[in-house]
């Protein structure tokens, strides 16, 4: 009887240790996830997967994290695991799974996921749009190409986007400024506004926009009035040293205005 008792106690201790480890790891991953630190959240959730301790909750969190980083292959994989392991998968997971399948050119499977989403949320505008034209993307891809997209020499391995041309000046947003603090969402530096001068098919004199537009937080994208004298740009709600957050603790975005004075904003 004692022998059985000791075995039972040992098993209970072993499973208790596993449960506590999983709870601790999930809690750490959840903290990063709730702070929108998806790269770090993935690291913590993946530990559970590697140990064989992941469940539907972990799969869903991993899928959403990869989705927010636009890692379409990993997001697809984990949404599939989440949906297969959940008795009542969220409608939004079916929608996001469909988008990742579509991005990976698995159109038939994407339609199946969209149908599942539509069944759960028939009044959602996205479901209505899908039902009205479920095969719009293959039709577009099979059509005559209208544009050619080329990589410019000003592109980097960091985020570069939001190009806006004014004369021979190109304004764009980039995370290439490695002197900035990394942003937890994707572990890249915070975004700044840059300019480049167009010369034929190439761009030179790539630099931070001159003036007071850039801060230690995110800036971009930009829009400039036709006369080239007024810029509107998005920034984290930061001005004159004050950083405002919403009631949930998440930083907000606001539209700011800058005037061009003596060539500087």
From TrEMBL:
Q: Which InterPro entries match?
A: TPR-like_helical_dom_sf, WD40
Q: Where are the transmembrane segments?
A: none
Q: Does the keyword Signal apply?
A: yes
SUPFAM superfamilies tied to this protein: TPR-like
- Quick check: keyword Signal in the entry? yes
- Name assigned to this protein: WD40 repeat protein
Coiled-coil intervals in this record? none
Keywords in alphabetical order = Signal
Please report a single Pfam family linked to this protein: PD40
Endpoints of the signal sequence? 1-21
